[in-house]
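Fresh eyes needed here. I'd like your take on this protein's tokenised backbone:
***
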Amino acid sequence: MDLIDAIILGIVEGLTEFLPVSSTGHLTITEKLLGMSIDDPAVTAFTVVIQMGAILAVIVYFRRDIWNITRAWVSGIVKPEVRGTFDYRMGWYVIAGSVPIVVAGLLGESLITGALRNLWWVAGALIAWSVVMVLAERVGRQQRTEQDLTLRDSVFIGVVQVVSLVPGVSRSAATISAGLFAGLDRVTATRMSFFLSIPALMGAGIKELPDALGGDIGVGTTLVATVISFLVAYASVAWLLKFVAGHPITWFVGYRVAVGAVLLVLLGTGVVSAT
């Protein structure tokens, strides 16, 4: 992987991490088109690590919210009067919602970094989850705001987030869809998706960091891609929050299905290999 490859992948990661189109799926496709072995452990680790740049963008963008939630949660441990605040509860919601994907990620690591790193999975998941997105928009009442969030909501969204371990599903598509199914409005579902992304992707990135830096890709190349992903993702976060306030997530369905269909054709005709 050279510097140009790193820049391209950083841009792809930053653009797609928080859009409901699957950043891992797009990175996997792009890596394959750039001539990389997508089931190589070093490439797999690199794919995970550069997501930390996008997560840093979320932390910076929501820094005030994160500070308030963290401060209230820490204070609430020793101060009972704080435990009735929304920020204190939100701290527990994020923790509880993150548990399912942490457990699934650890137990299914070999599957996630092995068999699922296959473009047939990416193509199928891009199309299949698009159906779920359409259903979520149709049946979701969208009558509940962030103040109406409950522990049950966070656990439900967290469980659905596990499905995003399949490349092509999209973590944001899974969590936003789950929020809509729970009756949350789009902005609340999207904000919850952002908050749950922090422990999930930051933890995965830290875990894969030694493999990414110790492989053939190198520290400099990984750092460049991570910085690029941060810069592009920061703009994506702001845009997506404004977009979902007035547009359904089904706006992305046509693109997902088109990419999945083209990929199926390329795989079926042998133009592109699955791994």
In short: Residues 176 and 255 are 17 Å apart (CA to CA). The chain has a mean pLDDT of 91.
